Amino acid sequence: MDNNYNYAFLDEGSKREIRRASLKAVAIPGYQVPFGSRELPIGRGWGTGGIQLTLSLIGPGDVLKVIDQGSDESVNAVNIKKFVGLTTDVKTTVKTEEATIIQTRHRIPETPMKEGQILVLQVPMPEPLRIVEPREEITKKMHAEGDYSPMWLLLYESLIRYGRITVASEYPCLVEGRYIMNPSPIPKFDNPKLDGADCLFLFGAGREKKIYAIPPHTRVIPLAFDDVPFEKESFPGRRCRLCGSGGTYLDELFDSATGEKYYQCSDTSHCQEVRGCI
Amino acid sequence: MTALTKKHRFDEVYDAQKVYRLLLTAVSNPAKSVNIREYAEKLYGAHPAMLTLAFTLLDNEVGFSVLEDEALAGDIACLTLSREAEPEEADYLFVTDPSLLEDAVRRAKCGTLRDPHRSATLIVECAGRAGLFLRLAGPGIGEASEFSVTETVKTALEFRDKQCYEAPCGIDFVFVSEDGGLLALPRLVRREAR
Hints:
The structure holds two protein chains of two kinds. By secondary structure, chain A is α/β, with parallel strands linked by helices. Chain A is built from six helices and twelve strands. Chain A has two domains: 12-129 and 173-221, Rossmann fold, CATH 3.40.50; 234-278, no CATH class. In chain A, strands 1-9-8-5-4-2-3 form a seven-stranded mixed β-sheet. In chain A, strand 2 (63-68), helix 3 and strand 3 (91-92) form a beta-alpha-beta unit. In chain A, helix 1 crosses helix 2 (48-57). The longest helix of chain A is centred in the N-terminal third of the chain and has 16 residues, at 12-27. The radius of gyration of chain A is 19 Å and the shape is globular. By secondary structure, chain B is an alpha/beta fold. Chain B has one domain: Bacterial phosphonate metabolism protein PhnH (Rossmann fold, 3-Layer(aba) Sandwich). Chain B contains six helices and ten strands. In chain B, strands 1-9-8-5-4-2-3 form a seven-stranded mixed β-sheet, with helices on both faces. A three-stranded antiparallel β-sheet of chain B has the order 7-6-10. In chain B, helix 1 crosses helix 3. The mean pLDDT of chain B is 94. Chain B: This is Alpha-D-ribose 1-methylphosphonate 5-triphosphate synthase subunit PhnH. Chain B: It holds the Pfam family PhnH. Chain A: InterPro entries: PhnJ (IPR010306).
């Protein structure tokens, strides 16, 4: 640990503010609590919201896992792990079940998370209504009044125009029947994992200065119509080329030399566990 | 020359992190009781558990109110540099006397539909043993379940229900007992008929 930095990099005043905001966010699931996002030695938009949450949460005894698009070895994940390690000395892991805090971008691990674990999601655009309304003043009012008709209209128009809802990631969900929330750019495949989970989900948007949360055992329902139910991605007939799993979220890879397309698990640690590599 | 000594052993970095995580566990799992005794013992005064939470959460960015307990108010202000505010304006209300609970609930700010986070957290000291059963439901609990609580918790929820807040406006409760037991009941936790 580099003792020239405060423990977990942030000063204690910054941590306290983030902690207060996260507690309020847990008390009002799905509501975006504003906070004073701090400068970090990493560009905004590279996971600063998630990092600030992680740094305010972490302490001796924690075990940290960081994934980016399901991978423990991506540049973003490795550098975040190194940065947190440099300022805390906490143990890191690639095993989902070993971690007490998992910071992630774009995926929820395939291994179901347990009670006591915290999943910190990096969020580029926390406001689900931004796609239908550019003004923050108005979206705040829409949330206050529970006026989500433009969002429903967007989904309906997509259905009419393309025959299906074309939102691929950041698929909006309704939290405890009150707030429409952006689950961060996870694929639709991961949306059902938010509903009634055993773990705590914390969402941090550093650039947009918002924190929101989903406590365990909370209703999180992807928006859908009575006659057009929510559908997540499926991969019929396809299996991971490495571990052979069929029920996981698969990445499509392309070999430009042979023109061959093949599939493998997006969650690399799950894939390795199935193969007995870790 | 007289050496300066600290009045307490509470570590602002490591102990505050531990207490915050326990508090986060309690707020996200309202049915779950956690214990902060180990950290409260490092502080002083007649209400060390309350001082522990104040030290963890408060600073000069927020206001607090302690109803009719000047000694505790002085300790909190001295330790955290937080400003004392009227109960209607306070972000955190500390209630040590159960007879003042109704007044605190009535005066605490509940936020607005636009900014529900601009609401108060009430930190209430509970005496006595849990023995009353309440059926509670809401985020963090899921299916309604029965929990054993103290008379103060039951009364506080009754006072809160009387306010008829329009969700998501409301106030959040944190109850601490003399032995360091801590129970949180955020605004969306509701009582169900048994």
